[in-house]
Amino acid sequence: MKKITALLFCIISIFCICSGCIREDLQYELHSSGEYYIVTGKADVAKKNITIAKEYKGLPVREIESEAFMNWIKLDSITIPKSVMRIGERAFFGCKNLQNLQIEEGVEEIGEQAIGKGFLEIGEYAFSDCDSLTKVILPKSVQWIERGAFYDCDSLVEVIIPRNVEKIGTDAFSECDSLMSIVVDVINQYFQSIDGVLYNKNETVVIKYPQSRGQESYSIGYDVREIKEKAFFKADFKVVDLGNMSLEKIGDYAFQDCKKIEEVTIGERVNKIGKGCFFGCVNLQRVTFNDMDNWSVVKKNEKNEVTDHKDISFEDLSDPDIAIDLLQKYSEYEWFKS
């Protein structure tokens, strides 16, 4: 009996020692409030498939820290629980082999001081440079998609925007060479998709044209008044018609590096063309201004102070060849019509 008891004691002791030696996959840190944990990084660099815990030491896991998994080349898949309310800036930046991104559906109501008041925020450049991601389906808990969130995801073909998203930052889906479609839940009150192109709900603003949509030409909607910054960045069409009667403003770098574009028509109500709008459009052959009167160009410094100002003549804009030269010459200037 004594031998059996001793043997059991040894087995239990060995189990306890080994249990204490088990390495956790991830590192967690208690938030300064003492109310929840933050994922701060990886503990086991050999792991390829990671599941973030919903709770740690009896408290919820609410955040993934900025740069927590940055440049983790071996990472193949990650599951993020619905408890997480914020994915920090550059959290998965450069995870080039990340193929499977799963953010659990649903959201738990939490206190007034909690991040996002119960909704998920995807931070700036959080999944930028994740070259192996092919499709992103975000859960309905996502509310904010910050600047550059999926920037330079070369294999990304389709993005599905859920119903509660109310903010999409500039460059969120720029440099996505394979992107063909952005789909928005029809219940969303802030955005909508028209044939795979991202607009605001009222169809008055073009936000993002998928880089590889595959059309030879594109005409913006009749009610569009504004084209956002980098909206058509690196788009693959040859002809774009901006000649509708509503368009007033074209944002900075809106058509930058559209290397296939050959022809552009600018409507008569357009009164502002942002800097760098047609920069890098190396095959642009014809630009038609429907109204050539009262145009000027203005250059500003970082303090938004005017450093240079020039008037553009009616005659120059009447000549398509000269108009193209002027657009390139003053590419870092803002164009205004008085």
Structure write-up:
This protein has 338 residues and is mainly beta. 10% of the residues lie in helices and 30% in strands. It has 3 helices and 27 strands. It has helices spanning 2-21, 314-318, 320-329; strands spanning 26-30, 37-42, 49-51, 55-56, 59-64, 77-80, 86-87, 100-103, 120-122, 135-137, 142-145, 158-161, 167-168, 181-184, 191-194, 197-200, 205-208, 217-219, 226-227, 239-242, 249-250, 263-266, 272-273, 286-289, 295-300, 306-312, 334-337. The strands form 5 sheets. A 9-stranded mixed beta sheet has the order 15-16-17-19-21-23-27-25-26. Strands 1, 2, 4, 5, 7, 9, 11 and 13 form an 8-stranded mixed beta sheet that branches.
SSE layout and pairing:
Layout: H1 2-21, E1 26-30, E2 37-42, E3 49-51, E4 55-56, E5 59-64, E6 77-80, E7 86-87, E8 100-103, E9 120-122, E10 135-137, E11 142-145, E12 158-161, E13 167-168, E14 181-184, E15 191-194, E16 197-200, E17 205-208, E18 217-219, E19 226-227, E20 239-242, E21 249-250, E22 263-266, E23 272-273, E24 286-289, E25 295-300, E26 306-312, H2 314-318, H3 320-329, E27 334-337
Parallel strand pairs: 2-5, 3-6, 5-7, 6-8, 7-9, 9-11, 10-12, 11-13, 12-14, 17-19, 18-20, 19-21, 20-22, 21-23, 22-24
Antiparallel strand pairs: 1-2, 4-5, 15-16, 16-17, 23-27, 25-26, 25-27
Name some characteristics of this structure.
8-stranded mixed beta sheet, 338 residues, 27 strands, elongated, 3 helices, mainly beta
| Sequence of secondary-structure elements | HEEEEEEEEEEEEEEEEEEEEEEEEEEHHE
Gross morphology:
elongated
List low-confidence stretches.
Answer: 2-23, 107-117
**Average pLDDT for all residues:** 86
- Spatial order of strands in the largest sheet: 15-16-17-19-21-23-27-25-26
Radius of gyration: 26 Å
End-to-end separation in angstroms reads 101 Å
Structural class: mainly beta
Secondary structure tally: strands:
27
Number of helices: 3
Helix proportion: 10-25%
The fraction of residues in strands falls at 25-35%
Largest sheet, in brief, is: 9 strands, mixed
